[in-house]
Design a protein that fits this description.
The chain contains nine helices and no strands. It is mostly helical.
Length: 207
């Protein structure tokens, strides 16, 4: 299946009432996608779930693809906001920074994990395939930068390879947890285990 071009919203809401309408439509889109799946979802079903007319929906979104794309953008913004470092990260102990990053990834996956999976599956179909790639690049730059500044504290490793191993390992566990046991994403024990995994791999004492 060839990826689609990015669908564009018809107009941006400017007034509080319009913004509330768009928010209701996006929330309804999420409910319909979770309930019916992407293939069975339709603008008619979404409008009905939102309590608006199809005409009102079409003022802002020309298609189901545009609705799903806008929902992906909102979801990505919510999750990306959690993947940041404190301004004084370079002065904090490496175990603390590792915990901060692991916690951010867990919290990002805990933002409605069922919806997260549905939206990730639809990224290529609605022209948002670059969003996940861009997030991956930023995450790699973040981790690579930390390793570069802390080379004296970790065992000798290929920093590019180590970055790949760390991100892939933590991402794989958090992704699977979101599917199989989403409640564990907020379990401090999982956070502890992932921090231990990262620090042991780098040859750093956890405590």
């Amino acid at each position: 299946m060839a990826p689609k071009t990015r669908p564009v919203e018809r107009k941006a809401p400017r007034q509080d009432r319009s913004r509330a309408t768009v928010e209701a439509i996006l929330e309804a889109t999420a409910r319909v996608l979770l309930r019916d799946g992407y293939d069975r979802a339709s603008t008619n079903r979404i409008a009905k779930a939102a309590g608006v007319s199809v005409g009102s929906l079409y003022q802002y979104f020309p298609s189901k693809e545009a609705l799903t794309g806008a929902l992906i953008d909102r979801h990505q913004a919510e999750t990306e906001a959690l993947l940041t470092l404190p301004d004084d990260a370079h002065r904090r102990p490496l175990p603390e920074i590792a915990r901060h990053l692991v916690r951010g990834m867990l919290r990002a996956h805990a933002v409605h994990p069922r919806l997260h999976q549905v939206l990730m599956d639809q990224m290529p179909r609605v022209g948002r395939q670059d969003r996940a790639r861009d997030l991956g690049v930023r995450a790699s730059q973040l981790v690579r930068g930390i390793l570069e500044t802390r080379k004296a504290e970790i065992r000798a490793v290929d920093l590019e390879l180590a970055t790949f191993v760390i991100i892939s390992s933590v991402e794989a566990v958090t992704h699977e947890a979101g599917i199989e046991r989403p409640e564990s994403l907020r379990d401090p024990r999982l956070e502890d285990e992932l921090v231990e995994l990262v620090l042991r791999y780098l040859g750093v004492a956890a405590r």
